[in-house]
Every structure is written in C-alpha cells, then in structure tokens.
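Recall that a protein's primary structure is simply its ordered list of amino acids. Everything else, from secondary elements to tertiary packing, is in principle encoded there. The following example makes that idea concrete.
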Amino acid sequence: MTSEQAGWMSICAIGDIVPSTGVCALVGSEQVAVFRIGEELYAIDNLDPCSGAAVLSRGLVGSLGERVVVASPIHKQHFDLRTGECLEQPQQAVRTWAVRRQGEDVQVERRDT
C-alpha cells in the first residue's frame, strides 16, 4: 500500500453490524474484524494466530473482568479488543486497528506497508 492509499476507509454502515457482534472487512489486502459493542467500535486482525484461520470476526464477544474480548471460534482463546492481547497465550497477540464512526459510516484507518 502506498502512502497515497493510507487514510480512513468506509467499510459499512453502522446498522450493518448487529450490536455485540463483528463483521469482516477487506482493507487493502488485509482482513480486519470490526466489532460493535454498545456504542463502542473495535477493530483487530481477523486472522486467529493460534489456528491460522480467518475467523475472529465470527467469535463470541463479551467481557472478562474489565476486558472486552472476543473468543476465537476455533480454540476459544480470548483476544482483548482494546489491545489485541491473547489472554491465554500473550505471544499470540493480534494487531489492533484504528476504527471510528463518521455519521452512519464505520471507517477503518488504512496503513502504509
């Protein structure tokens, strides 16, 4: 991705994400899992590093203590939606992405690579 391609990209309307669930978006050549928890939005890599499958957007969301997490549908590891840390295996963290709501649009910030 060139620097001209960096910036915010609309991926869907806020109404396209059912509350307390996630969707997957292709941002450049990367899959990003975007979650809507109440009025908050979170975005992490969609690829589960423990299984190698692109499934995190389909995981169950909830909280463990103060942490907002998604449980991978494959091996059930919990990923912190704020930090990307895998609670059971911290070395298996995923990247987080900047995400925002602009009117009715959900946007993810593209990166330079």
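The first strand starts at residue 7 and ends at 13. The chain has one domain: 3-110.
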